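thought: fold this chain, then report.
action: predict
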Amino acid sequence: MNPWAAIVGRSSDRRFEVTRSVVTALREAGLRVGGFVEETVIRDGRVIGWDAVDVAGGDRVPLARADADPELCDWRFDAGALEACRGWATAPALDVSVLEVGTLEARGRGHWATVREVFEGAPRLLLISVRPRALAAVGLSLPDPAAGIELPVDGGAIARFVEEVRSAAEERAVSA
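observation:
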């Protein structure tokens, strides 16, 4: 089982931006980072969905859009986008895999199979970006995290978190 760390916050806490800055800092520390973040898509002042963005290459796919006939929530998720996210997060030779998780994953759907695959797969650290309301369900399904940060925070707290994640990822790589 691989170690994991969490960035916990609402979208209004700048979770996307903090996750991207953590990814940048981990890369600058020499770690190979892959996976994805989810970016809110806004049109005419309204949230119309989310795009998944590959943290390694910057590719973007439409992940979810509003649905008039929702199965589980008010959004329709694209199966091809979920598969692209899986590929980005499970790419070989990564030290850190970044994944976004939320309500669907807390219910064992959405990206949950990818979370499990990374957690149980090749040696690396799993870095999840999670909404507070989903944290309990996700956390109960995994052992204690190696590190965690709850937003909003300042730059000093982010730097300390990056160091904890870097250390845990390097420790995992050495023990593998």
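thought: worth noting. The first helix runs from residue 15 to 28.
final: tokens above.
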